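tl;dr need the bound structure. longer version: we got a ligand (alpha-D-glucopyranose) that a collaborator sent over and nobodys looked at where it sits. i said id run it. heres the input, straight from their email, havent touched it
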Amino acid sequence: MTTQWWRGAVVYQIYIRSFADGSGDGVGDIAGLRARLPYLQRLGVDAIWINPWYPSPLEDGGYDVAGYRDVDPVLGTLAEAEQLIAEAHAGGLRVILDIVPNHTSKAHPWFRSALDAKPGSAERDFYLFRDGRGRDGELPPNNWTSVFGGPAWTRVPDGQWYLHLFAPGQPDLNWAEPRVRAEFEAILRFWFDRGMDGFRIDVANMMVKDPALPDLTGKVAAPGHHPYEDRDELHDIYRRWRQIADSYSEPRVFVAEAWVDDQDRLALYLRPDELHTAFNFDFLTVPWDAAQARASIDRTRHALSAVGAPATWVLSNHDVARHLSRFGRPPHPQGRGIRYVQLSQLAQCPLDIELGTRRSRAAVLLLLALPGSAYLYQGEELGLWEVEDLPDDALRDPTWTQSGHLDRGRDGCRVPLPWSGDAAPFGFGPPGSTPWLPQPPEWKKLTAARQEDDPGSMLQLYRDATELRHALPALGDGTMRWLDTPDEVLAFERGDGFGCAVNFDADPWPLPDGATVLLASGPLDDGLLPRDTAVWLCGGRTAGNG
Ligand code: GLC
């Protein structure tokens, strides 16, 4: 029988350049990750997802891939990657890797040959090269802009332009070209043959473009007909990928990174013959607010029940401000509510770390109690906050330059982890090494070593929660039933007598009669659940407590 482990897995995201540095060059690597596998086992996660580790000029943190069948020498070797997979499996962990099919790096051999070849050549057909508009073709072929800011087109010396929906160093591939499709199918097999358990698909909703590359009009396109987002033709690609994943004796899995606002449209990617799961960004973008959280949970369950796919729950990743900082100040409308982009905005609204920490503790109990699988972003288990005061010259995210220095970008959630000790590099690398982004001195209070034996630490809460999650059959995949509560309290039951309650912003709420507290995110007040606190319960008459 094949396991459907992915339906209820807790997956830990490894931003490898910032996880652990085994070589001492300031950059996290496979050696560092292998040395920390025991930590991940103790944390109780079921799988890891590793951000791109392929050779890359690093114009977008490795999402500019120069070769898909290798590992960047700064991070290790293919042999080490295979060892890592074997060791993770031996320790009971599955491994998921990022695949980046929307674009390559401009250093990829295909793009280099395309530049060397003539307009109209077969080599250029791997990408989206077009003549410009205007009298001498001096204007971009259309009005699309890059996700990072600025035009989505760059001109090459012979006068043609190429499309890049992200950085200029990330030319978009032409998915109408059969050789592109065949190549990615071969890349999937390459890693699956090496034991990789699955892929996170980067920008899974933008690979296919309207062949006419029309201007954006500002009008809302009919579903499936936007010039480059969420087009219906994408589904053929994923049906094919699913067949490849299913051809292995232990089927491989996919998780889509698809920022598709309409949950019913997102569910289409998760039909039984397509992808297994998708990140739930609807939930990620919810601020600390009971009504909005409940509405998002219901939208998710409703949309996914139509296709039979499990939900995923996620609070943070390498593209958004760490949730401790989001929950520790009022939500900001810009950056999809997930990122304050300018220092002036931050200055007006100081972070309350204690509040953010309290809410983060409650949030993870909610996350891990909801039905489906859950994603944790490295460092959230240590209670790390977004580093908002990185010096300008340390910033590496292309968002910073492409936005004309208006948006400080995503480096603040990518700062290397603090493992031990009282000063940088905090055990991230050997003593004397300099992490590629500076770590705040205050993180000495948050090192993994410091939290190891502290029963009240964030790390211990995460470990307690994953341990219970494994022990209780009610958790993971399955269903849930809301309980009747005041508006600012969310409570639900699962299985036979498991309950989770979160008080977002109400007066202390009386726990159900006779319920036993299995785990609490903070101190309870004589049988009352204070605000910004969550509990896991069993037994008792959980239903009907108003
Ligand atoms: C995804 C990645 C992000 C990257 C972008 C372009 O959104 O998560 O980090 O910049 O794709 O590849």
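gonna send this back to them w/ a short note. The mean pLDDT is 95.
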